[in-house]
Amino acid sequence: MSLFIYNSLGRTKEKFVPLHPPIVTMYVCGPTVYGHAHLGHAKSYVSFDVVVRWLRHSGYQVKYVQNITDVGHLTDDADEGEDKISKQARLEKTDPMEISQFYTKSFYEDMDCLMVQRPNIAPNAAGHIPEQIDLIEQLIKTGHAYEVNGNVYFSVESFPEYGKLSGRTNQDALQSGIRVEIRSDKRHPSDFALWKKAEEGHLMKWRSPWSIGYPGWHLECSAMSMKYLGETIDIHGGGMENRFPHHDCEIAQSESVTGKPYVRFWMHNNMVTVNGTKMGKSLKNFVNLKDLFKIFDPIVIRFFILQSHYRSPLDFSEVAIKASTTGLEKLRETQRRLGEQRPGTLAFDMRPFEQRFSEAMDDDFNTPIAIAVLFELSKSVNAALDRTEGMSETSMQEAAAFLDKAGREILGILQDNSQTDNSGNELNGKRLDAVIDVLLDLRAEARKNKDFALSDKIRDRLLDAGIEIKDTKEGVSWSKKS
RNA sequence: GGCGAAGUGGCCGAGUGGUUAGGCAGAGGUCUGCAAAACCUUCUACAGCGGUUCGAAUCCGCUCUUCGCCUCCA
User: Fold this and answer.
1) At A476, which helix (H) or strand (E)?
2) Which residue range is the domain that position A432 belongs to?
3) Which spans in A341-425 are helix H?
4) Residue A178 reports pLDDT greater than 70
5) What's the confidence (pLDDT) of residue A81?
6) CB contact at 8 A, A307 and A368
7) What Å value separates CA A317 and C1' B24?
8) CA(A258)–C1'(B8) in Å?
9) Which pLDDT band holds residue A181 (cuts at 50, 70, 90)?
10) Which of A103, A179, A297, A341 has the most CB atoms lying inside 10 A of its own CB?
11) Are strands A4-7 and A12-15 parallel, antiparallel or unpaired?
12) What's the angle, vertex CA A69, arms to CA A99 and CA A151, rounded to 5?
């Protein structure tokens, strides 16, 4: 059984073998930190989080780099317009450094809520100016870049394969380029900026051999990827909208300098739509994660994202997330029962579930199927537990272990079972147990006396307080409800 | 205009030549004092029109529709 990954370069599923096993080098385009993260960020980073988790589970040693863009990303078209960070700083009446640090912190807060594990290295663009200047110098030396009036551009004509990732020929680029680039220093309309001379009043600027200025956006990923992961990396991920021009530019810059393939597997995740239309910054429909977390459990959002495939578009609607909430609760319930219920005698074969789960994940990280396997397991386990014979102790342990591995370690949609029971310290947990036992005793007594008004009142009031009671064959059980 | 993705049952969402996706919602049942949870049974599909094939949701062609990129976006 081996892992297959859909490679955007070539548009086929290919068997994944890293260049230097067991190490896997992986770079994912990080956020530009000028605003709070939104659902699109969540989809992207949750998807790649699962990729990393599965690779690690498969025995690879993953070196995961995800950058923070804090300079050079302009608001407007082809190398014109204001720097996004600077603009936000102007709007918030502060300086760019504060903006990028504030939103970087915000980004990680949201990712932590989504159980997204931190990358091994999170380099920022502004911290790697010398590396970027160095790369530009090499490009000029090899004739792939040229300087005009303090600006440096990459010459697209010097790299015949330009556009190979997106499938755009130079002609296509030419056509679209002409529309937006009439007056420019560029030799060719598709040429893109490597270094820009700072205009009057520009805040983020550095000394370079060409001018006091700042780097072009595409450059940082090449510079940092090659610095931390080497000239050829195994996996480069990002959003689909970055295929062109961003990733094609990265390829051109990097391969022009090294003469080697820049990336072996390109992975692109699809977009989030809201009620069928694109979530855009210009449209006012984009869903801020901090707002979303006020209404929904972040883990439910993660679960919702993983219920569709990373290469499929994800349509956000409250109805859909509510459906996910109920679904996830079902898995949690099974996890809980496995931890609480008394063992019986029935043996239960976990292997088919484990196998199908692995097959799904190995098939280009097919999380919807992987989750479907968990649901089928849940159903079978519940059915077995409902029988009078019950599940054997070994089987229960195996099932719980599998849920823990697949649901918590790999997909990150379940939590440690022991933690779901008692939040807070142990003493409080024990006290809560004791208090509820008192109430349950009173309720049992009421029921014995057929005082159902009282027993129902206890049940309802406890539910209001976040404690759900269930009358099972084995007696009364209770659990915390989020 | 160019490049690309896609249209699946009430909703979300997998699947790619013959065999159950899964979840949510709905219906009936078991259990229960009543619920809840769980279990059992069950309804509603593959945009349209042609073609290839013994057989197509799945391959091919056309039509319609939606979405993304080409200009900042994960």
Assistant:
1) strand A475-480
2) 426-480
3) 351-362, 367-386, 393-402, 417-421
4) no
5) 62
6) yes
7) 13
8) 46
9) very low
10) A103
11) antiparallel
12) 105
Same domain, A336 and A412: yes
| pLDDT, greater one: A149 or A166 | A149
Nucleic acid strand B: bases within 7 A of protein CB = 1-5, 11-15, 21-25, 31-40, 66-74
CA distances (Å), origin A323, targets A184, A233, A455: 52, 39, 31
Interatomic distance A37 CA / B73 C1' (Å): 12
And the tokens for A91? Answer: 């709007």
**Among A421, A438, A456, where does a domain finish?**
A421
Task: Count how many domains chain A has.
Answer: 3
Question: If pLDDT is split at 50, 70 and 90, which confidence band does A397 have?
Answer: very high
Considering just the CA atoms, what is the radius of gyration of chain A in Å?
27
Task: State the complex-level ipTM.
Answer: 0.91
Which CATH number goes with the domain that contains A170? 3.40.50.620
Q: What's the rounded Cα separation, in Å, for the pair A388 and A287?
A: 48
- Give first-to-last CA distance, chain A, whole Å: 39
Q: List residues bridging with A206 in a β-sheet.
A: A213
CA A391 to C1' B27 (Å) is: 31
Q: For residue A274, name the pLDDT band (cuts at 50, 70, 90).
A: confident
Residues of chain A with pLDDT > 70: what percent? 89
In total, chain A counts a number of residues equal to 482
Confidence category of residue A170, pLDDT binned at 50, 70, 90: low
Q: What is the pLDDT of residues A79-115, one digit of tens each?
A: 556 778 888 888 888 888 999 999 999 999 999 999 9
The verdict on A100 and A168 lying in the same domain is: yes
Which tokens go with A17? 């073998």
d(CA A190, CA A29): 22
